[in-house]
Amino acid sequence: MRTRNGHALITGCGIAGPVVAMALQRAGIESVIYEARSDAMDEAGAFLNLAPNGVNVLKTLGVDAQVQAAGFPCGGIAFWNGAGRRIGVMDNGPEERRYGAASLVIKRGLLHRVLREEALRRGIRVELGRALESFDSTADGVEARFKDGSTARGDFLLGCDGLRSRTRELLLPGAKGPEYTGLLGWGGFSRCAIPAPPGGLMQMTFGRRAFFGYCVAPSGEVYWFSNESQAEEPARGSLKPAIAGAWKERLLALHADDASPIPDIIRATEEASISCYPIHDIPFLPRWHQGRVCLVGDAAHATSPHVGQGASMAMEDALMLARCLRDTPEPEAAFARYQGLRKERVEKLTRQARRTGNTKGAPGPVGAWFRDRLLPLFLKRAAEANAWVYAYKVDWDGGTA
Prior knowledge:
Elements: E1 6-11, H1 16-26, E2 29-34, E3 47-50, H2 52-61, H3 64-70, E4 72-73, E5 76-81, E6 86-91, H4 95-99, E7 104-107, H5 108-121, E8 125-127, E9 132-137, E10 142-146, E11 151-154, E12 156-159, H6 166-171, E13 179-190, E14 201-206, E15 211-216, E16 222-229, H7 244-254, H8 262-267, E17 275-281, E18 289-290, E19 293-295, H9 298-301, H10 310-327, H11 331-358, H12 364-380, H13 382-385, H14 387-390
Parallel strand pairs: 1-2, 1-12, 2-8, 5-14, 12-19
Antiparallel strand pairs: 3-7, 4-7, 5-6, 9-10, 10-11, 13-16, 13-17, 14-15, 15-16, 18-19
């Protein structure tokens, strides 16, 4: 099996960037990560679910223990209606046996920090405050120019810079950007004194005006989110922390008629910890690469969070791309192989996430009646229906042919 030595430039030090850098290192390819922000922002953002397929990528790279120490397991999901009646349970209990790994809940900022620190520990250079301005891709390599006037040269450039990727804008100037899905996402952390649900289940409620979910960490901290239907996307820059004082009142109004402990969780949340963001995905791009430049994770195929797969998809991408670059001498051919192996899967998941998000709106009394009776039937088949998602593994020791 051939090993191709080289040097990669990576834009973005969130999730995909450090994971692809560690995977490339394993393939014998050096890299440097360039992050646009001048500080790490390890406390920013809400939380996410890391599914078994994502944890298995971390196991391949030997960084699963560090990530698991920063999060906690999720035993499944209990679903409720706004009146406080439990309508179904999806049990994650057999995940370890079925897939070789179990789901994990972790704060996004903590995941970023763990991955970045592990990359640094392995000798991978991370440079902050290096926002990409432009690049030139030739037959011999790529030169990146940054907004601070500096430059860097490598054999290829990997855009791991997320939903609003500057790399994507430069690479595919005519491509559609992120598309608003019709939902606002709210999130925060609370010290509400409520008992941890049995079995570590996440609690999700189809509220009368908005959807609400929460779980209780071993420390007693409550991680929560709310999804609100809103047809028009708020103007960029209008959802700033400076107006967070009004956010708690808005959330309390949204969930005023929903059962306890939802209003109690919101009241016990410090306003500064509340975040609000329009939920986007990215329309399917015909190409993720051109010349010696390639997109990874959300930069190529952002999915909405409703199936808990955004981070795991980015990790799968990173490992698969590194394997393709290891086994294929020319970057362009490796990028084409990577897209061919990944595109169908991520597009199917993006569609599924959209459909799931569409169920979170308030359906009216008749729709709610049918939902409450049909959901338990759906959940009985959920484990089998989701097996194609969770059982997926990138076979690092296999070939890509």
